[in-house]
Amino acid sequence: MTAPKLHHYVEEDCQLCPRLTAFRHENAEKFPDEFNKPVPSFGADDPALLIVGLAPGLKGANFSGRPFTGDYAGDTLYHTLQKFGYATGEYQKHKDDGLTLHNCRITNAVRCVPPQNKPTGDEIKICGEFLKDEINSLNNLKVVLALGGIAHNSFLRIFGIKLSAYKFGHGNLHELPNGLTLLDSYHCSRYNVNTNRLTQEMFDDIFEIVKTLL
């Protein structure tokens, strides 16, 4: 299936994935005052760093309309971006809080909230076309930071790069044939942080690597 252009995707009621469309509409009925649409990217228009997450959280980005905004993962991510100078302003868990990103942009491998936070392979593939369009439009992009294995694999697949040649692992750094550098991190989800799979020190180390790359 051919995906529409990216700017259409963020403006319209995308219906390419029937399961995600139905879930989104179901949530729009339950929570009529919340965003409940495909969540557009957030940040600089032509950054050197693109951060790719999994998908909007039901009561996070799906409610706020901004990636990683309103949930636990956002608390960790935006705190770290501020610490390393990629964000200024006060993060207040809503998209009109005035937070600004510098030389950095945030998006997701899948832009609609999936049931149980688990997109299917077909949904990841369809939405990958939008991610590919976006990456191709960023002329100054140097580093893609993948938060989790799904973001990592989605990025490789959309450019036809063999997954077995570039395996996901926290802190793994991949120089890719397309000239971009892919850096891996465990996702800053509540589960990963609470179980110490990802500590703040480990996440800081990732951004220290980004600093050396940029």
What does this structure look like?
With 214 residues, the chain is α/β, with parallel strands linked by helices. It has a single domain (6-213), classed as Uracil-DNA glycosylase-like domain (Uracil-DNA Glycosylase, subunit E, 3-Layer(aba) Sandwich), CATH 3.40.470. Helices cover 37% and strands 14% of the residues. It is built from eight helices and eight strands, in the order ααββααβββαβαββαα. A six-stranded mixed sheet has the order 1-5-2-6-8-7, with helices on both faces. It has a two-stranded antiparallel ribbon with strand order 3-4. Strand 7 and strand 8 (181-185) form a beta hairpin. Helix 5 crosses helix 6 (149-158). The longest helix has 16 residues, at 121-136. The chain is globular. The protein starts with 5 loop residues before the first helix and ends with a helix. The model is unreliable at 1-11 (pLDDT under 50).
List keywords for this structure.
214 residues, globular, two-stranded antiparallel ribbon, disordered N terminus, 8 strands, 6-stranded mixed β-sheet, Uracil-DNA Glycosylase, subunit E, alpha/beta
Explain the layout of strands and helices.
Elements: H1 6-11, H2 18-30, E1 42-43, E2 49-53, H3 61-64, H4 72-83, E3 87-88, E4 100-101, E5 104-108, H5 121-136, E6 143-147, H6 149-158, E7 173-175, E8 181-185, H7 190-194, H8 200-213
Helix pairs in contact: 5-6
Largest beta sheet: what is the strand line-up? Answer: 1-5-2-6-8-7
Number of strands: 8
Number of helices: 8
- Ranges where pLDDT stays below 50 over 5 or more residues in a row are 1-11
Name of the CATH homologous superfamily? Uracil-DNA glycosylase-like domain
Radius of gyration: 16 Å
